[in-house]
């Protein structure tokens, strides 16, 4: 249980750091296409 709490806190801190340092709004539900398995394998959708 303690590990899960630390993991969630770490994720929130990293998100806050990126939002403040890059001065961009946080977009809930954003999914990056960079580095996805399909792109890495050359599979086109």
Concise synopsis of the structure shown:
This protein is mostly helical. The protein contains 2 helices and no strands.
Describe the SSE topology:
Layout: H1 2-22, H2 37-41
Organism: Hoylesella buccalis ATCC 35310
Protein name: IS110 family transposase
Number of helices: 2
The count of strands amounts to 0
The proportion of residues forming helix, as a percent range, comes to 55-70%
Unreliable segments (pLDDT under 50, ≥5 consecutive)?
none
- Identify the quaternary structure here: single chain
Order of helices and strands: HH
Distance between the termini: 39 Å
Structural class by helix and strand composition: mainly alpha
Provide the residue-averaged pLDDT: 77
Strand content: under 5%
C-alpha-based Rg, rounded = 15 Å
Major sheet details: none
Structural shape = extended
Protein name: IS110 family transposase
Please explain how this structure is put together:
This is IS110 family transposase. It comes from Hoylesella buccalis ATCC 35310. The protein has 45 residues and is mainly α. The protein has a domain at 1-25. The protein contains 2 helices and no strands. It has helices spanning 2-22, 37-41.
Write out key terms for the chains shown.
mainly alpha; 45 residues
